[in-house]
Amino acid sequence: MLVLLLLLGTSLVGAFPHKAPRKSCGLSKYRFLLPSELKAMREMKEKFEETMLLSNRKCNTRIFHRKWNTAELSVPDRVLLVEAELELVMEALERPAAPGLAEWRRRPLSFLAQAREDLRGCVGVSPHSPSLPGLAGTLATQAPAHQPSGKLRHWLHKLDTAKRRDTDGCLEASAILHLFQVLSDLKCAALREECA
Q1: Where are the transmembrane segments (predicted)?
Q2: DSSP classification of residue 18
Q3: The pTM is what?
Q4: Based on the number of CB atoms within 10 Å of its own CB, is 74 exposed (0-12), middle (13-18) or buried (19 or more)?
Q5: Which of 186, 22, 161 is nearest to 90 (CA)?
Q6: FRET partner for 150 with CA separation of 20 to 30 A, picked from 54, 77, 89, 140?
Q7: Residue 121 binned pLDDT confidence (cut-offs 50, 70, 90)
Q8: From CA 24, how far away is CA 13, in angstroms rounded?
Q9: Residue 67 contacts by C-beta under 8 Å, 6 or more apart in sequence?
């Protein structure tokens, strides 16, 4: 009788499909960034600004300029926004750096890579999914419960256009010069409804 019950229990478990556990969305640690992390970001930004002043690079670094505030977005839109921003920043920082800048990037890159990974747990984007231009579409197909707002879709399109049009050097400048805006957006996403 015991053997029959065990067999029946095993077959019933296989009869009902179960979802694979979804990676948790743990952004609370980004509500308040550690002073040491902020210091590493600030030092990298300052070193980059010094080298940029010495070069004759001419860039339009207005990619991150928006006519709206992050707090105006829904909580899911905020997460999608920061994920897209981090994709751009990581692509820029993972490229070969000018001599003397590689060392300054190491700690910020580690922090930003972790934040990007944590965000992927919230939006359902796999590490192998394409970045923009397919990001908005990928997010919509992988997370059908939430469609990005028109405001966010427009901004994602603008980001995609800049990625195709601007040089690597100008994308790097935009990413580094607006790094603290990205961190502010990350904090807003972590604060959820409390971000105002």
Answers
A1: none
A2: -
A3: 0.75
A4: middle
A5: 186
A6: 89
A7: confident
A8: 24
A9: none
Q: Which pLDDT tens digit goes with each residue over 47-94?
A: 888 887 767 667 776 788 888 999 999 999 999 999 999 999 999 888
Q: Can you list the domains of the chain with their CATH numbers?
A: 39-54+67-123+169-195 (1.20.1250.60)
Quickly state the pLDDT bin for 139 (edges 50, 70, 90).
very low
Q: Nearest CA to 116 among 33, 35, 18, 30?
A: 30
State phi, psi for 36 to the nearest 5 degrees. -65, -35
DSSP 8-class letter at 36 = H
- CA distances in angstroms from 31 to 41, 66, 114, 157, 196, listed in the order given: 16, 22, 15, 28, 13
Buried b (16+ CB within 10 A) or exposed e, 37-73: beebbeebbebbeeebeeeeeebebebbebeeebeeb
pLDDT of residue 128 exceeding 70, the answer is no
d(CA 190, CA 193): 9
Cα gap 31→62, rounded to integer Å: 26
